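Lab intake sheet, docking and co-folding queue.

SAMPLE TYPE: protein with bound small molecule
LIGAND NAME: zinc ion
LIGAND FORMAT: SMILES
REQUESTED OUTPUT: full 3D complex as structure tokens
PRIORITY: normal
SUBMITTED BY: R.K., bench team

The fields below were copied directly from the construct record.
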Amino acid sequence: MSKCMNGNESMKEMIFSLLQKNRRNTFLKNMVELKCKCGFSEKITYYDFLSGGEFEIGQTIQTISPFISESIYDETIRVTPLNFSRNCPSCREEITGVFPISLENLIPMLQMQPPDPIMYG
Ligand SMILES: [Zn+2]
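RESULT FIELD (auto-filled):
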């Protein structure tokens, strides 16, 4: 894999630092399922997935927003997939897939602060 992906690396750093700040965010307790063609499957939390860093930031694509209102005809949105690959612990083949949430949607969710009672203490 190419090593000259500085933009991607700094985006990853940003994700890691947001993870550290918001590790108690309930959103991060969602599970993502990794499925191998041999039948092996594993569920890990978003937090474990993202903090493990076993993903690459994919190519941003422009797509038509699925939320088109009557007044907007063709709003294009940017979608950057997070692609992951890891070796299957059962058959050693590579499991590849795409994280269910795009980078554009992930960042605002990580920035959402959970209610923190300590703040008022
Ligand atoms: Zn397998």
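REVIEWER NOTE: The first helix runs from residue 6 to 21.
SIGN-OFF: pending second check by T.M.
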